[in-house]
Specification:
Elements (H helix, E strand, L loop, with lengths): L5 H28 L7 H28 L6 H25 L14 H22 L1
Helix pairs in contact: 1-2, 2-3, 3-4
Keywords: Membrane, Transmembrane, Transmembrane helix
Protein name: DUF423 domain-containing protein
Organism: Myceligenerans xiligouense
Length: about 140
C-alpha cells in the first residue's frame, strides 16, 4: 500500500472538503439554468464551464497528488507535480466564474487573466509529474 506523506494526506483532506463548495456551486447553477437566478447566455455558459472544470480538475488533482508520492521528485518539483493541477483547479474555474460576474454581463471582464495562469499550472503540473513517473 502506498503511504502518503503528512502534507499529501492533509492536502487531500482539504481538497475533499472543498468538494462541498463545488457541490454548492452546482445548486447555484441549477437555479441559474432553471431561471430562478438571472443570468445572460454568456454567464450561463461560463458558469457551466467553471463548474465542470472545478469537478474534473479536483478529481485529476487528487490523482496527481497520490501519484506524486510514488516518484523521486523532491522540493519544488515534487510540489509542482503533486499540486500543479490543484492550483489550476482554483485558477481556471475562478476565471470562468469571476470573469462572468456582474449583472447583464455578455463578455469576460479582467479576471480572464486567470485562464492562461491556470493553463500554465495545469500543463506544468502534469508534465512534471509525468517526468517524475518516468524517472522513478
Amino acid at each position: 500500500m502506498l503511504e502518503l506523506s503528512d502534507g499529501a494526506r492533509i492536502t487531500a483532506a482539504i481538497v475533499l472538503l472543498a468538494v462541498v463548495g463545488i457541490e454548492s456551486g452546482g445548486f447555484f447553477l441549477l437555479k441559474v439554468l432553471a431561471g430562478r437566478a438571472p443570468a445572460t447566455d454568456f454567464q450561463k455558459a461560463f458558469f457551466r464551464a467553471g463548474h465542470a472544470h472545478a469537478g474534473v480538475l479536483v478529481t485529476l488533482g487528487l490523482v496527481c497528488l497520490v501519484l506524486a508520492e510514488a516518484t523521486v521528485l523532491t522540493g519544488f518539483w515534487h510540489w509542482l507535480g503533486a499540486t500543479g493541477v490543484l492550483v489550476a483547479a482554483i485558477l481556471l474555474p475562478g476565471g470562468f466564474f469571476f470573469s462572468a460576474m456582474g449583472a447583464g454581463r455578455t463578455r469576460p471582464n479582467g479576471f480572464r487573466v486567470l485562464f492562461p495562469a491556470g493553463a500554465a499550472f495545469l500543463g506544468a503540473g502534469v508534465v512534471t509529474l509525468a517526468v517524475g513517473m518516468f524517472l522513478s
